[in-house]
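pinging the channel bc i need a second pair of eyes. not urgent but kinda urgent?? the chain im working w is below, pasted from the shared doc
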Amino acid sequence: PGDTDTRFNIRGFDTESASLRNGFRVNGPEIAPSNIERIEVLKGPASVLYGQFEPGGVVNFVTKQPLSEPFYAASFTAGSFSFYEPSVDISGPLTGDKKLLYRLTAAYQNSGSFRDFVNGEQLSIAPTLSYQLGKNTTLKAGYEFLRSDQTFDEGLPIDPITFDLPRSRFLGEPDDFIRSSTHNLNVSLDHKFNDNIQLRTGFGASFSRNRYETFRLFELIPTTNQIDRTFVQSLFEQEDYSWQTDLIAKFKTGSVQHQLLVGVELARSRLQDKNDSSIALSIDVLNPIYGTPIPSSLPDEFRNETTTDTVGVYLQDQVTLLPNLKLLVGGRYDFSRTDSNFSFASDGEGFSASSQSNNQVFSPRVGLVYQPIEPVSLYASYSRSFVPNNALTSTGELIEPTRGTQFEVGIKADLGKKFTATLAAYQITKTNILTPDPADPDFSIPVGEARSRGLELDIGGEIRPGWNIVASAFLNNTVITEDNDLPVGDTLINAPRNGASLWTTYEIQKGDLKGLGFGAGLFYVGDREAELPNDFVLPAYVRADASIFYKRDKWRVGLNFKNLFNTRYFESTQNSSFISPWRALHSARNDFVGVLIKRGDEKIKKVELGDLGGSSKSQPRQRDLQSILLASTNLYHHENHHIHLLHPPPKFASSSLESYCLPYSSLAGFSRRDAIEYCRTDR
């Protein structure tokens, strides 16, 4: 409750609310948690395949797909702060020949908070169909509806006084709210011409509507301990459309093996923003008095409508030069056009304006993987990203897009059949960042630059039957290297300089106690800058979690403890003024999870932890170049913290992408709570 936006920080850079849903771009991950199969984190620039994204990386939410065997599951989760969530997940064939399959997930969530007056509820329904048109052709269609109603909570001020405030302190009004609804649609067609040529085409659409009425928080006046507030009524609507077609071909030129990907993407994003506001009474952070009336009139009016059309053409070739040497070369050319219309009025007087910008950008990627011995891979890669600035200089010239450039080297090793380790070093430089024009502060110039350098270590696997471990550690330094306004050398906000995590589980494999399991973990996050310029630091913290669970036949029950020792900590800030309430000052939360599962006669196959490459007994084990270059971590799904590797989704089948979705973990620079909430137990 109180969460108005979900964002990720990857390798020091904010993803700006943009993510992928089954490979299709959505501006904000409004996706039903109960419908998520797994999360993929693609670290580094991803523009060569997905167009405009921030250089740190991109998060892809993969939804649950229909199963060919009957599957029925129901669960109920309850926890601290009046949290409870019933859910269902059913799947199976609709016809005797199993050509038509279905899946349906639904969930309702209701929760309070450690924050005064804050609560919320969420409802989600997601049906999916799959139909086999022919031996080599499959059509899939999925729909998802998500509705939420919760208290709008902006958190606490970025000021030393915050450390003396109770964690429950709420600085809005009890009736503040944000209500949202989201409709997501995906349709895809896969056709395999033969063993060497495959066609994939798909359409994705997302429609979201957010309405809130709230007392927004602005500047804290230290001498009076008062926070200025403004009452705002807002309506935000967004539509995203995307059509993608990929052709994958395998062939040889002499002794050299190629895997060629050629694709095209057409996309449109349209948003409308309407805000009416009025200055309201301030509130005392030490002694808040609630009940401020809503202003009788809202004289300040802001309107904005923006439409962006994009055409992207991309090509990528994975070349096997030698059995132990592979090369990846690719590039994407994007054409985009943005039309904006906005207006502002105060007491009936104001102004309006419109603008249009056109961008053409090329994003390359090159990578090399060498295996000195079969279990070890050495790799190096270069890639670029872009985000349009859609702005003009004082002379009317279009400002070039913000660009990201990454160099990365690393080593990946299989330490036994079911244990892997990855060590990566990277540098990302973000250029053409807008800064104020010294000659005309009403305009901007693209001279800003920021640089992220870091080391990442990820290990994970099965130490012995029933005993699994996942651990990670990172060092990161993300600083401003050029700017007209901000101090050079300052660190970007929410970018920890270091961090580490360890999560381990053990499940008894035989005897009377078979199925009983335990989990424990420690998670360290270093200091983070809370604002720019760097005048306020969020202190480092260590959090301990634990779990106990028991599985018997088709039942599973568990008890999870987050923040076992009730550590007081702040996790991130949401802007330059306030600390995010949904990521700050967590106290222990104990969840009781009771799950009844009824499956068909045949169990669902799960790939073992060691099968890193999507291998199975019927498919020879292979290393895929893109899985090493695109992600330096591996994807896991957990059931009460019993961890196993899952197959990559159809969208990424050719590249076997591997990314972590770690329970209560600390991906390098990745927002931990967001990962947890979208990878909830028994999803």
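so The chain has one domain: 9-677. and The two ends are 20 Å apart (CA to CA). — does that match what u expected or am i reading it wrong
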